Please model this.
Amino acid sequence: MEHFDLISIGSGSSGRKIAVGLKRAGWKTAIIEADVDHHFGGTCINTGCIPTKAIVEAAHNTHNFKDAKELKDKIVKRIHDGTLRNAREKVGTVVINGFAKFVDEHTLEVNGEQYSADKIVIATGSEPAIPPIKGLKEVNYKTSKHTLDLDNLPEHMLIIGGGRIGLEFGQAFNTLGVKVTIFEGLPHILPGEDEEVADAIRDHLQNEGITIFTGKFVDEVRESKENGKTKFTVILNDGPNKGEYHGDYLLVATGRVPRTRDLNLDAAGVKTEKRAIVVNKYMQTSQPHIFAVGDVTGNPMFTNWAAWQAGVVLNNLKKSKEPSDLWEPLQKPNIPRLTFTRPELGSTGLTEKQAKEKYGEEKVVVVRFYNKWLGKSMIVGDWTGFLKGIGLKGSNEILGVHLWGVRTASLVQMVILAMDNGMGWKELANMVYGHPILAEGIESLSKMMLGKVFSQ
Ligand SMILES: Cc1cc2nc3c(=O)[nH]c(=O)nc-3n(C[C@H](O)[C@H](O)[C@H](O)COP(=O)(O)OP(=O)(O)OC[C@H]3O[C@@H](n4cnc5c(N)ncnc54)[C@H](O)[C@@H]3O)c2cc1C
Model:
């Protein structure tokens, strides 16, 4: 049985970072990946962030499904191959192809072979959450992964779930000429985001021709054949949109759950709660030599948050192999929340509702800067949307921003830099901005906010 200093189960943004980083530091490390040929590098590269954003971008630029798919496949292959080459050939991490299960707390089994390690990292990511809707299990529904591999465009795509993934796919396919209907059970799309902004995005998508129903969870789903063609029916039993809705493609995009199934965690004594692996502030599980990082530890599920968690484990193990005073705990900075619709939403911190619940209605200040007031928005040809800032009366503190507009996913980063480093609206307002640039929107938003928070 081959023995390693450390094995990562999973090759995604989190596990790979630790295994590759420690190999560079002289450890003998391995990465076990269930599907090296098609999924090395994990969800983000192969079936998540990169291909979805490539499809969204290409759909809008080319309006042609074949071109969009070709571009997506080219980008994914390039990143997949480069990532594998880097980990295996350049750095020398051992890459093992197959699904890993625990045999005991130091041993894993893959395709009948056993491997042992001093330290093990569980970085198995997440999988689609499938809601308990009547009939859903019996029909041939699709997830985001299948949808990326579609060969032919459907006529009418029914999407259950109005979160990021549902909206990004919905808008891209609508742009490609597919009729799209989205069903969101909660009162607003983009659950967790600022409600005013989410409603504005809903209106924008509806103006583009997408049908969106909110406030009613789907009751039942059926599949039938009509003239040899598959037909799906989504049923809402009551409410203002009560009715039966028909389409030829059913995408379920109702969030994701940690992928802990079939790992045989009991054999290793690793504890879970609601399927997520329980970890302490050093990302150690209930077994101190077994770490868990990324989506498998639960929400939020974002690539760079997964990599951030991995950085904690990597840096600590580089300092000392066993827990010591040198180890530093996971810090929870402000996390960007990005939605890649057109235009996109970049947000961080509190929503207006959360801020008012926390500080009281009268203390919270809200400002909105409309992109149509900005020269650069006109130059780039899209002045949809607005930048929304949430502040506190008499305070320089940034409580949250919700930036909906062209390329705002990058703009949110400068606000996070300020928030993470004890700066606020004053610092964002008091610098010389280049001109004409989209970041001038942040300058204006900050100045508007200063005018309001410090006014009597
Ligand atoms: C459609 C979609 C779009 C997304 N878009 C974005 C985005 O725009 N921005 C963003 O930040 N995040 C996005 N995400 C989320 C992001 O992909 C994840 O947060 C990130 O990939 C998590 O990294 P990870 O290392 O935890 O797991 P993963 O990247 O999922 O890696 C886990 C790996 O482990 C392997 N594996 C699982 N079980 C086993 C086992 N037992 N044995 C061996 N191998 C195993 C899997 O095959 C997989 O390759 C998106 C996700 C999806 C699905």
Notes: The domain at 136-254 is CATH 3.50.50.60 (FAD/NAD(P)-binding domain).
